[in-house]
Amino acid sequence: MGRKDPRVDEYIAKSADFARPILTELRARVHAACPGVEETMKWSVPHFDYKGMLAGMAAFKQHCAFGFWKASLVMGGAAKADDAMGHFGRITRVSDLPPKKVFRDYVRKAMALNDAGVKVERAAKAPKRAVTAPGYITAALGKNKKALATFDAFSPSHRREYVQWITEARTDATRTRRLDQAIEWIAEGKPRNWKYMK
Q: Are residues 94 and 18 in the same domain?
């Protein structure tokens, strides 16, 4: 038996007037096609799970979107990924949705893929190149052994944040001020954006 999530009710209720009937219809269609579906919220929008992620929907200021997690396998070339976040383009009224039978067939195909444990191959992200600090940064770090040791122990992303922050300064005065501040924070073991971390 499927499961509805009260957070999805709240999401629909808070959506724009035009979006409520669209989201309600999408929700009903998913439950009709997949009685075992479970609702949840992911990335602050409603999602439908069935033996893994199945699909999701969202409301925006002027349109709604619906997308399948494995859209390339479910819909093939019929997916309209260029026009909106989802795979049916910008949905502004219920009549923009595909016919009920077509929609049901898509949901059932997505279910079959999850039943079979099929995974969608995602393009591998290109590795970010190693961070190379300019000589004036490494020289400043070399004068403070604690800062140097901490900087070397930082993850590449933390090192990159500091290097970018310092090197992107427009004036020498700003660059010097940022470098001094960076050395102080690094010596204390703080990443660049420590103020915003929980």
A: yes
Q: Are residues 13 and 104 in the same domain?
A: yes
Burial class of residue 66 (count of CB atoms within 10 Å of its CB; 0-12, 13-18, 19+) = buried
Q: What is the pLDDT of residues 91-116, one digit of tens each?
A: 999 999 999 999 999 999 999 999 99
Q: Which has more confidence, 163 or 195?
A: 163
**Do 31 and 102 belong to one domain?**
yes
Cross-sheet strand order for the sheet of 53-59: 38-42, 45-49, 53-59, 64-68
User: Which DSSP state fits 128?
Assistant: P
46 and 101 share one domain: yes
Tell me: do 107 and 12 sit in the same domain: yes
- Same domain, yes or no: 107 and 148: no
Contacts of 3 (CB under 8 A, 6+ apart): 37, 38, 39
Give yes or no for a contact between 46 and 94, defined as CB atoms under 8 angstroms apart.
Answer: no
> How buried is residue 142: exposed, middle or buried, by Cβ count under 10 Å (0-12/13-18/19+)?
exposed
Decide if pLDDT at 150 tops 80: yes
Could you tell me if 133 and 158 are in contact, meaning their C-beta atoms sit under 8 angstroms apart? no
The pTM for the full model equals: 0.61
What's the domain range around 53? 6-115
